[in-house]
Design a protein that fits this description.
Blueprint (H helix, E strand, L loop, with lengths): L1 H15 L5 E11 L10 E4 L5 E14 L9 H9 L8 H23 L4 H11 L4
Antiparallel strand pairs: 1-3, 2-3
Helix pairs in contact: 1-3, 2-3
């Protein structure tokens, strides 16, 4: 089941990257919240006057193929970003991290197949390594 899902996702990704180029346009900006004290991801940013105040940094991205067709809302792009715990955000960082996770899973599955590692043995190996699935 996992192998089929993984292979299906990899085929979709292969179609996406069949383009000679994918353009990822990102906008990095700070949201200034000088009077906030309890917001998710509240950190420090620079005010327009140059002082350090409360706020958070946002990074929005748009993904385009070589024909300038927007792929940002493509469910596969979202799924890849979600692999990197993006919480629904689509950014350059989450897309690349998700691709890393996807490729790592693919390599693990191939290793299991090449070495005839059963599910039971794999679960034992995960338990030994302290990995909980």
């Amino acid at each position: 089941m996992i192998k089929k899902s993984l292979m299906h996702l990899l085929k979709i990704v292969e179609k996406l990257v069949a383009n000679k180029r994918l353009y990822i346009i990102s906008d990095h900006s700070d949201s200034r919240k000088p009077y906030s004290s309890k917001l998710e991801n509240l950190g420090k940013v620079r005010s327009l006057a140059g002082s350090i105040i409360n706020g958070f940094t946002t990074l929005g991205s748009v993904i385009l193929d070589e024909n300038k067709k927007e792929l940002t809302n493509n469910p596969t792009i979202q799924m890849i970003c979600d692999l990197a715990n993006s919480k629904g955000k689509i950014t350059h960082y989450f897309f690349l991290e998700g691709l890393k996770m996807l490729l790592l899973s693919w390599h693990v599955q191939n290793f299991r197949i090449e070495n005839s590692i059963s599910d039971a043995l794999f679960a034992e190996m995960q338990a030994y390594a302290g990995i909980i699935e």
